[in-house]
Amino acid sequence: MPDYKLVIEGGRELRGETYVSGGKNTSLAVIPATLLAEHPCQLDNLPDIEDVRALVQILRHLGAGVEWRPDQKQMQVDPAKLRTNTVPFRLSQKMRASYYLMGALLGRYGYARVGYPGGCNLGSRPIDQHLKGFRALGAQIREENGMVVLEGKLRGAKINFDMVTVGGTINVMLAACRAEGDTVLTNCAREPHIVDTANFLNRIGARIRGAGTDTIRIRGMSKLNGGGYTVIPDQIETGTLMIAAAATRGDVTLHGCIPTHMEALTAKLLEMGVLVTSRDDIITVQLRQGHRAIRLSTQEYPGFPTDLQQPMSALLTRALGTSEVIENIFDSRFKHLDEMRKMGAKSVINGRVAYIEGVPELHGAPVTAPDLRGGAALVIAGLMARGITEIYNSETIARGYEHLENKLNALGGSIRREPVASDVYGYANSL
Ligand code: EPU
Fold first, then answer.
1. Ligand 1 contact via 86 beta carbon (within 6 Å)
2. Does any ligand 1 atom lie closer than 6 A to the CB of residue 252?
3. What are the extents of the domains in the chain?
């Protein structure tokens, strides 16, 4: 994708209705999980995002038959004839979720050679817990020229994660599905996409119980069949759109979401004075007056998601009073606040705590998206700001949001893409 910037004319209220796309982080787990099957799988409600595009490239490189129709949100994967178990670094570093190829290929073939994953630069992001889980299942692991080589016949095991890890929980679950015997994972992450991945695997013949709790039990199966599955809506896109609605003092109704996944955000928005109502798969967000500062602390699900901390802190730049935001999951997830200072926002960062003093107004400025959710936060800041905001490195936003600017424009925003001359550099493309 050629480099482009987003140009936002701020100060317009968002009003109207839109829909939420399929879950990014669910899709990025379920697509590699299809490789555990013997027969074709059909996935529905997949988002049209760059990370899915990169994953399709990886699956095709491996030899899987992939037919993706983004306009129909549908993908067919035929995993029958893989020609290689190697995911080269040039492909693995395109995204974080390439680490799922380790669990999927190891589980299916007892051998995988995968480059280290990429992903947003949020500080140190080791995968030691993934590797600890694979080792406990019987894999020998070595590093060869920067590639992780995993090999061995897998047997069920009891594994307690040292910390709660989303990727680690899913990855070890993938491998354990085809191990011999039973596996019990404890201290697991409980995010909705872990449940969704387990539901998909069970649909194609796996036997997984307890996903969504801190203990997951897996009976290894000698083979998994194929089958169809519809992925859940994106929790983080839902939240981003909810926050954008509040930030512009708008009135927006979102369709196709799961309100129970949004409880931590909804509670905080209500505390700030934003009106949030929901029924069935619909959420409405309205804000008429100013909103109050809050104290926010990111936690694993069902706590406040780290992925919404950045969009939420954009909203806090205009709250009445000073907010305290504590980032408990990642070392370095406040770079967007440095950028927002160029727009008149006031914040002080002390390690994993940011103090954001609300200001009456932001003004447009050229800024750089530091990472995916930081980019979304800058879009929200741009929508709130007086004048024109230009967001460089905006390709990073398309990695995880389906046509974000189109959705916001349909609600009354004014955002356009403009090509960037090749001599303009933002952050290194680190996602
Ligand atoms: N951690 C370790 N060792 C491990 C694994 C994790 O020390 O082996 C640490 C991490 O460094 C981090 C914490 O544990 O401090 C949590 O990491 P986790 O493994 O839960 O995160 P992840 O798998 O790297 C996924 C999402 C992220 C999301 C986090 C937390 C995908 C592809 N990525 O990352 O999504 O922020 O879970 O919910 O699912 C995003 O969508 O913008 C994004 C960054």
1. no
2. no
3. 4-21+233-430, 24-230
Same fold, 4-21+233-430 and 24-230: yes
Cβ count within 10 A of residue 309:
26
pLDDT score, position 426: 47
Q: Is 120 annotated as catalytic?
A: yes
* Domain 24-230 CATH (choose: 3.60.15.10, 3.65.10.10, 2.40.50.140, 3.60.40.10): 3.65.10.10
* Domain topology for 4-21+233-430: UDP-n-acetylglucosamine1-carboxyvinyl-transferase; Chain (3.65.10)
> Which residue numbers in the chain have pLDDT < 50?
426-431
Q: Which atom of ligand 1 is nearest to the CA of 123?
A: 11
- Spatial neighbors of 428 by CB under 8 A, at least 6 apart, are none
- Return the structure tokens found at 181: 């015997």
Q: Look at residue 122 in the predicted model and tell me its pLDDT.
A: 67
| Residue listed under structure tokens 């020998």 | 140
Regarding the beta carbon of 415 and ligand 1, being less than 6 Å apart is answered no
Atom of ligand 1 nearest to the CA of 373: 42
pLDDT of residue 424: 52
Which amino acid, residue 255?
H
User: What strand order describes the sheet that includes 388-392?
Assistant: 366-368, 388-392, 4-9, 415-419
- The answer to whether 51 and 97 have CB atoms below 8 angstroms apart is yes
What is d(CA 420, CA 393) in angstroms, rounded to the nearest whole number? 9
Q: Is the CB of 400 under 6 A from ligand 1?
A: yes
**Centre of ligand 1 from the C-alpha of residue 235, in Å:** 15
Indicate if ligand 1 lies below 6 Å from the C-beta of 128.
yes
The pTM of the full predicted model, rounded to 2 decimals, is 0.96
Give the C-alpha separation, 256 to 80, whole Å. 33
165 alpha carbon – ligand 1 mean position (Å): 6
Q: Name which residue sits closest to atom 14 of ligand 1, judged by CA.
A: 165
* Residue 345, amino acid: A
